[in-house]
Design brief:
Length: 73
């Protein structure tokens, strides 16, 4: 697996879009869509994200390539 860059974020945002709950990591004016699988980690303890590609994403019900939160405290 290649090394992905770490992106520092300001906060997470939960929004209702077309009747579905969507999660975003916010870094300035940029928004990164986040998978529901990690929703328990969308708090001030995980204010960094990185892109990850899984060989078997169906085990976690996530897209093959997605962003994952990283612990910062």
């Amino acid at each position: 697996m290649s090394e992905s860059k770490i992106i520092k974020i300001d906060r997470y945002e939960t929004v209702l879009e077309n009747g579905a709950i969507k999660y975003y990591a916010i870094a300035g004016k940029k928004r990164y869509e986040m998978p529901e699988a990690y929703k328990e980690m969308y708090n001030d303890n995980y204010l960094a994200i990185t892109e990850r590609t899984l060989e078997r994403p169906e085990l976690f019900d996530v897209p093959a390539t997605h962003y994952i939160p990283l612990r910062t405290v």
